[in-house]
User: What shape does this take?
Amino acid sequence: MDYIKAFLVGGLFCALGQVIIDKTKLTPARLLTGYVVGGVFLSLIGVYKPLEKFAGAGATVPLLGFGHSLYQGVIKAVEKDGFLGVVTGGLSATAAGIAAVILFAIIAALVAKPKIK
Assistant: This one.
């Protein structure tokens, strides 16, 4: 049942994003940024934790989950380090994911043969 919940919630996020791209003039970059900010906002109002508990990876893997991770990192760092945590918390909480993205992008660039259009 966990797989079905994750698939449905993650699929709903993706389908919603596709509808927004199709029906508005928002660029994909703005939509992706909006999803990250949406994850922060949903965390701020207390909605994201129950959603994460219900959907598991369906809520943590999409960009909303990245925004939630940033928010949680900032909150923990502010409690520990004060105002400096506003700057350092989000980066330290998401450093492993950001490093993985950079590594996989380098590997993909080395393996793929790009063509200029």
